[in-house]
Design goal:
Elements lengths: L2 H33 L4 H27 L5 H90 L1
Helix pairs in contact: 1-2, 1-3
């Protein structure tokens, strides 16, 4: 086989692989959306960033492999890669990964709750203690304020008499 044909076949295989990578990356965005629901603005922002990065990646591949020239069989290769991924992997991958990640997150949050439970009890005890001391300090503050007020009035009276 000639070197040109080998380069073209390699370029086509890289295009297929790029299609698989692009679809795989978007599946991770879908998994993230399934785990953490958010509004239209964040969804649109995610899509914009995703397609921006994909555009740069495809352009870099075209530039590196084919001197920046768009060839239709590269587009066909990327489409074939996307379709192969969708037909073979996509639906199972999203459901399996989102389920496992959800279970792992649930387990981690449960462990955190168990570990932090004593700290939560200490926090509530400290809060009760601070509230109690705050009430006592308010009473002491009011008492001192009254005493100082009486002292100042007495001092004024003494100074005014002299």
């Amino acid at each position: 086989m000639s070197q040109g044909i080998v380069q073209e076949v390699t370029f086509f295989l890289h295009s297929i692989f790029m299609g698989v990578i692009i679809t795989f990356a978007y599946d991770w965005i879908l998994i993230f959306r399934k785990l953490f629901r958010h509004g239209k603005f964040l969804t649109s922002l995610e899509d914009f960033v995703y397609w921006f990065v994909c555009g740069i990646s495809v352009f870099y591949m075209l530039y590196r492999e084919n001197n920046g020239v768009l060839r239709w069989f590269a587009v066909v290769g990327a489409t074939v890669g996307m379709l192969m991924y969708k037909l073979i992997i996509k639906n199972r991958f999203i459901s399996i990964m989102s389920t496992y990640i959800h279970k792992i997150m649930w387990f981690v949050f449960r462990v955190i709750q168990v570990v932090l439970k004593p700290l939560k009890c200490l926090f509530y005890a400290a809060r009760r203690c601070v509230r109690f001391l705050d009430k006592k300090f308010k009473k002491v503050k009011e008492f001192i304020k009254k005493r100082l007020t009486v002292f100042i009035k007495t001092l004024r009276m003494v100074l005014c008499k002299q």
